[in-house]
Amino acid sequence: MTELTGKIVLGPHRYGKAENRVVRIVRDTDRHTIRDLNVSSCLRGDFDAAHLDGDQSSVLPTDTQKQTIYSYAKEKGVEFVEEYGLALARHFVDDIEPVGAARIEIEEYAWERVVVDGVGHDHTWTRKGSEVRTAAITVQGTGSERKEWVIGGLKDLVILKSTGSEFRGFLTDPYTVLEPTTDRIMATSLEARWRFAGTDVDWDETYAGIRATLCEVFATLHSKALQQTLFEMGKAALERYPVLAEIRLSAPNKHHFTYDLERFGVENANEVFHADDRPYGLIQASVLREDAPDAGIAWEPYTGAV
Amino acid sequence: MTELTGKIVLGPHRYGKAENRVVRIVRDTDRHTIRDLNVSSCLRGDFDAAHLDGDQSSVLPTDTQKQTIYSYAKEKGVEFVEEYGLALARHFVDDIEPVGAARIEIEEYAWERVVVDGVGHDHTWTRKGSEVRTAAITVQGTGSERKEWVIGGLKDLVILKSTGSEFRGFLTDPYTVLEPTTDRIMATSLEARWRFAGTDVDWDETYAGIRATLCEVFATLHSKALQQTLFEMGKAALERYPVLAEIRLSAPNKHHFTYDLERFGVENANEVFHADDRPYGLIQASVLREDAPDAGIAWEPYTGAV
Amino acid sequence: MTELTGKIVLGPHRYGKAENRVVRIVRDTDRHTIRDLNVSSCLRGDFDAAHLDGDQSSVLPTDTQKQTIYSYAKEKGVEFVEEYGLALARHFVDDIEPVGAARIEIEEYAWERVVVDGVGHDHTWTRKGSEVRTAAITVQGTGSERKEWVIGGLKDLVILKSTGSEFRGFLTDPYTVLEPTTDRIMATSLEARWRFAGTDVDWDETYAGIRATLCEVFATLHSKALQQTLFEMGKAALERYPVLAEIRLSAPNKHHFTYDLERFGVENANEVFHADDRPYGLIQASVLREDAPDAGIAWEPYTGAV
Amino acid sequence: MTELTGKIVLGPHRYGKAENRVVRIVRDTDRHTIRDLNVSSCLRGDFDAAHLDGDQSSVLPTDTQKQTIYSYAKEKGVEFVEEYGLALARHFVDDIEPVGAARIEIEEYAWERVVVDGVGHDHTWTRKGSEVRTAAITVQGTGSERKEWVIGGLKDLVILKSTGSEFRGFLTDPYTVLEPTTDRIMATSLEARWRFAGTDVDWDETYAGIRATLCEVFATLHSKALQQTLFEMGKAALERYPVLAEIRLSAPNKHHFTYDLERFGVENANEVFHADDRPYGLIQASVLREDAPDAGIAWEPYTGAV
């Protein structure tokens, strides 16, 4: 048995306040707007004494981070969640001495106006879609060492095509019993995250455009496999938005099995399917620009939600 | 201690196959349509011997019910989920001898076409909204004893208004510390179920109309309390649709607390809220027509999902 | 199309505060005890004006109910959750004028002491099991009209036997493709609820005894079907506890399919299974005493959790 | 706006079959044993053509991976989940030509025997606890390039102490309103993952010992902060098990707020708490040996579950 004898030391560590459910209403006129957010803060820095000696003198309480998150929703506003996240992250790095880097993770839930007499209502909405917009903003260092990364994204975008997808010509071994197919349902619950090359971005327009691009390619590309579809989706997003350095896609292959009805004398020409829960294929791919700037700690997750 | 000595006997019982995830694609032309369902069957009847003696000779396996559910999606189609449910329930009562009554519970998940070049795509969709359309179809007895009930509904319809809601003038006791308010966020995740007076209904049009009516009243009624809003929502639905006998509404009061920012010198005129998870108020009300036909066993739930 | 013309009126209604997460520590000595509860209150009574006119003068706020729930955890204690629930329900009926009936639903999460040097620690616990103990206490009316019902129970008790279960000799029809079996895994996530004949009960001892009885019968009865097993489980509980009037059991048949390994030349004599998610059989049965007192509104659910 | 012009290329990618729900019964004698697993496979290698051209000739279907996972549960057995995972990962790397590295992620759900007449039953169990044992096995390269890493762990271990925890002396800023405390509830839902220095390990004994060590330190250390507790927990595990190279801990601070009952004239000396859902503090720390071997790709997550 391999046994180690080296000194035991504190490794990387960080802390913050997760899942602050901030709802921001702008009511300057009778036509209100809403931003519905789940915000998490995460601080790195010199907190060794808290771990080694229980000394809290360098530890800004997570409760304080919470207060700041809610207060900044008014002080700075949340016109764009990415700007709001940048303001928070910069504050923690610049104003709280022991903090070396801060990460703000945001989930945004979309709402759409209730239609009354054909018009969107001023101050009533229903939740729109199951999908969640995400952002992860990381700020590190001060002065000439300052680095800032913004990752945008979405998750839980459930998308399905009922034809235009095949899977055949694959590698086989003694455990291979799958039949090749030239026509199947392809469905996934997409998670996509894209890293911006900078922070001077038309945030909402870019989000809408990337989402539309991903859906369009999924719809129109005749798919030989989910891998191919994901690559083409990511490539199209980068081609359309030079402000993107890279995009990462994670896609469970939500299997829809053609139900065997022949035994009952019923024809089933890809009309009736069983939507299975588990197991599922899980495909992950990234698409990059060769001149993408260094990602640093931008991709290191915190809550797992973003 | 109260002790009973009576004979121990079998009470009410039933069984079925829950949560069959049926996806039905109609592909008669290049423009496909999709119905995405979660279907449960439930049979009542003379199954005493199965319980008392383990004798299965009267028990149609739940696996057989599953096969029927999938096969009927092609044999009968699912143009309207209520008709599909009626066909299934009638089959079990009419064709399987020991069955005295059958209940079919259906959840339907909505999809919307992906837009490509401004046009909805032929065979690609994304999941639309978090809300679920529901139906519970019950068929009991044969011949002159035949009764049929259809309950339609929705759940997980998350709706919020940022003003136009107050709560004051309430009863107080020594545990009352709540401050009255004349302006608050009112939000809920609505569950509504409506019972039809018959089975000759324009199912999809009625569903869309009731949903729109519920949302409109929620939006436009100045609310003195969630109770009042629910009653007026239900009343409006019944007024607009004489085919409805009654409607039942269950609405968690999803509390949004105005965040205290004054301690930081920041004004918060109902602009920043904390969306709390638990506890929540839970309001349940029903609205009836006085000439509503008898509901029989129509409201007895099975899976709890409908 | 059937159309109704009757007057539209308010039907049954009720309201309360759901899911108050009360944790009660008794720390009179160094050896602490913990009760970890999820408590919901539900009031019925004359609240018509709140629905019809928005008049809150008879409405005790759900916030007040919350305060009472937390305060009673100290004032009355929670030595037994059923007694605590009775105290709360009696209070609402007796002390709040418009209240005609009150229901308290409780989920309790079990904890077990962390073992240190072979001994249970004084004030540290880990959560024990996935199962949840439940109680639903209903109090209705005052004086000679007073009625009280207590329902105990459990849910999410996942139990499995790897042999001693068969399913054969069942009814068949053209959709029946299931093969009979004389040896299968039988597994469920049990929900059981039992109604007491009175309120003078040794609550915790009875709970432990019923739970043990249910598990024992599941283990030792050679099962010809889940229906038979459920009936015998319920019957045994009633036989052992004369204080019970009836018991209701709901059991999803969590299917474990023997995996086909023969195609790979590997024998699988009921050794490797796929645990499927959906669909699942769902069996519901009740066992009664013939002299069971009237259940009144005891079984009418509120949150759906109990 | 920063715009990039570099060539767009495929970045890191991988794929597999997630969440195979394998249940393995050993029934060589009347006393059966059970292993209840959720197994995911993940392959890396030269799959560029599948992404760039839709060419599947190097792609072993995820369905094949599923078949292998189930078959190996019999062929190799699952006496220890880590050995089973190693066998699977080695197979994919050694026997499937395009595969450069394989990762197997496993969740294991614990069961305990039902007690009948004071004895554990031969073939009936109930699910034990909410916690999940985890393993992530990674195998990379062949021949002299071969590397193997095993990470063990647990998650969803909910642990609480009702005293012996303080939080004071922390850093303050204008947003700090938290009061220091010398006595509070400390509770978390622990996730811990530990990396082994080798693969010659007494797997089950080590798991039980680490789990016990983590719980003991949580219980017995007077805590000045969750950070301190986590570090001491990890340090104790490494001290006791020289076979460990490092341990990573992630702990949500599940806040229990002392409920304000004074306004009702009721004393509350840390006896009644509200268990809040969100937000929560989230503390993450690692403890390392200075001579820990290189971790390579061992920590790169796949499903997010491990």
Overall description:
- Chains A, B, C, D: It comes from Rhodococcus sacchari.
- Chains A, B, C, D: This is Urate oxidase.
- Four copies of one chain form a homotetramer.
- With 306 residues, the first copy, chain A, is an alpha+beta fold.
- The first copy, chain A, has two domains: 12-145, Urate Oxidase; 153-306, Urate Oxidase (Roll), CATH 3.10.270.
- In chain A, 22% of the residues lie in helices and 41% in strands.
- Chain A is built from five helices and eleven strands.
- Chain A has helices at 48-52, 62-75, 81-95, 203-220, 226-240; strands spanning 8-18, 20-26, 33-45, 99-116, 119-140, 147-161, 186-196, 244-253, 256-258, 272-275, 280-289.
- In chain A, the strands form two sheets. In chain A, strands 2-3-4-5-6-7-8-11 form an eight-stranded antiparallel sheet. In chain A, strands 9-10 form a two-stranded antiparallel sheet.
- In chain A, β4 and β5 (119-140) form a beta hairpin.
- In chain A, α4 packs antiparallel against α5 (226-240).
- Chain A is globular and about 75 Å long.
- The model of chain A has no long low-confidence stretch (mean pLDDT 97).
- At the A-D interface, β1, α1, α2, α5 and β8 of A face β1, α1, α2, α5 and β8 of D.
- β1 (8-18) of chain B pairs antiparallel with β11 (280-289) of chain C.
